[in-house]
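dumping this here before i forget
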Amino acid sequence: MRTIDQFPAPISPDGYRRADESRSLNNQQIQDALDFCHDHGITEFVLAVPFDVPLADICTLRKDSRVVGLIVAKPSQEVRSTYNNWMGCYLPDSYTWTLPPQYANTIVFVGTRSRITFRMLKSSARHGIRRIVCCTPMAWVNLSIVYLIICRICSYAAAKTERFSKPVTPLFNTFFNTFFTTFKVLNTSRVLLPKRLYTRFLSKAQEFAASRVEAIPGRVVLINSALAAGGAERQVVSTLQGLREKRLEATLLCEDLYSRSGHDFFLGKVQKLDIPVREVRRGVKPMQYVERLSRFPDLLHLLNKMPCALRDDVIDLYMEFRILKPEVVHAWQDSTSIKVGMAATLAGVPHIVLSSRNVSPPHFAYHQDYMKPAYQALSEFDQIVFINNSRAGAEDYARWLGIPSSRFTLVRNGLDLTALHRAKPEEIARFRAHLKIPPGVHLVGSVFRYWPEKRPLLWIEMAAKIASQAPDVHFLIVGWGPLRSEMERMIDKLGLGTQFHLVEERSDIATPVSSMDVFVLTSEYEGTPNVVIESQQLGVPVVATKAGGTGEAMAPGITGWIVDPPTPAALAAQVLSVLNNGQALAIARATGPEFVRSTFGIERMVRETLAAYRVPAFTQDLVEPNLVHNARASEERRDRATRFDRPAFTENHIARVE
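structure:
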């Protein structure tokens, strides 16, 4: 397989021109896949490309005798009519594909393994496909379809281990991780980059960018993986809204906006702000920038040592930044932040902000081995600012990376409170009647994704404990996710079917949350959960487990309570204590909105975010952002202000309620 310093950017400009003259394809990702097949003796295959392919490339591929069929995304009518007997297509609504009329026993997928769905694998297996070539985070690999199906089944099984007791879950995870680590060692040709090599790359990238084109003042580019219905995505939208109000030129790039249903959940809101939003262009490498890279062989050598999927994304983002010329680049979440940090340094972006939204990656399934050394290297460069939305999250990252917590800037979530109001009594009555919840009964509820880290099965076990002591209580969860069928089975098994309501996700959460008497969150890991903040804004008290910055998102003992350890019995006891205390419910109703406005207003979040950008023109009227190690004093003041025996914040509201 060709490496990046061989093509498209060889050591010298002359070498580049000679290579370009012999090149037949415009897309480097497709060319890499074909090179892998050539190097490994794969002589017949179906090529599957999950993005648009230029007509010129399709014509070239049709002449390649190895490519017996082609699967592309959204083929034009002209392409379909011309190559009907040679092409298949993607069925994005069904998460699968149709194979071309003629096919071999191998599919070459121009993308990462994570984008191959179980339905794609089933369709391929039914047609006798035996192997699939795809790109892992480490290299191109040729995998057995049986192995890929087993991987999918194991991933599904891993998601279900939440129902096991604590001693069983780590045992399963240890086996699962060992299995995949062993496979990765046996099936990849690249070596993980240690921190010093990432540091060398970033140093070389700074030298490369020394003669950069000046950035366009006031231009800010935000990058996130998608616009799904998540808390981080909601904060992206809030930040864009704030930038728009400050009359800054903002653009949003997403790595994957359309490949899966729900990835564009917030797209409509961004478009209403009249802010450009699109996917990162893949495989587009303008000639002048590739020629510039070819003059830095040491830099190319380091790029070529990176995991290939990481390398390709860094190059794609580098091209975007060279064209857009932003003054500030603001990336969200771990994988995206690492790639953006390296690409923006390479492109000479003067201000780079990397925003983490939770505790550190080792707590989650998406964790990759390259993340720690890459983050450590990025932390050594002062022009890169690290943000976290909770003190607990920032300190967890600092421990993981072995760096001072002061390296993180604390910017708490901000909510657009102007659009979030408690539903009117008649709206609440209609909503409850629609779910057949009798008038006057208590409703305990939540809003979250049905994923293992949210521990929905623990939530249901808690509900069963509550129902055993208060049979009239009803339960409501608004959300979506892969654990829904498992949740439904447990609800039926525990005899909660008539009083438990699962509602699909909805953009309007004010009505369902306003209908609740207590909001319960049972997450194992969190950053600063937006739903906890929103519940208090709507006057609903919160009971939650100790997870990340959840405790920082409430006024302890007044608008919310933390339960630790998080057993079903302990959670149920705390919920019943709140339900049976009318004064506590009234105090939470009165104090919640004021607490949220003072702590989590969107104006404060935007102000602190702009200060973190470190652009003087943005911060003329702003204070510097709070660093984690300086934020503790203000945190202590906030905590004191939210205790019954401390100053006027609580006492005034208690007097008002009484």
